[in-house]
Amino acid sequence: MDIFVEPMLPHPSLLIIGASPVALSLGGLARQFGYFVSLAAPAGELSGTPQADVLIDGYQPGRLKEARHLVVVSTQGKGNEAALRAALSIEASYYAATMRSGEVAAK
User: Which of 3, 12, 34, 101 is at a distance of 20 to 30 A from 51, taking alpha carbons?
Assistant: First the structure.
């Protein structure tokens, strides 16, 4: 008798903070690869309907679902400091930010 065991692990969770074109494209790609995507950005900055499982108005994501989290900040110069602070308040296994060097450090 053969017994096959396949673990059923939760999908990794990608939190994208910001509404830049990079952020919106990343959300669509991540969903195609099976990620659970949360997008946190002020509603006024969103153009169209982003491809995300959860939309969060503002940069504070609040309570996220239980999973391994990856966090990407892509604000394109709008709210960088608030977005970075929100990202670092989350326990994640990976952090990334798309911005020019010194953009936040200069403040």
Answer: 101
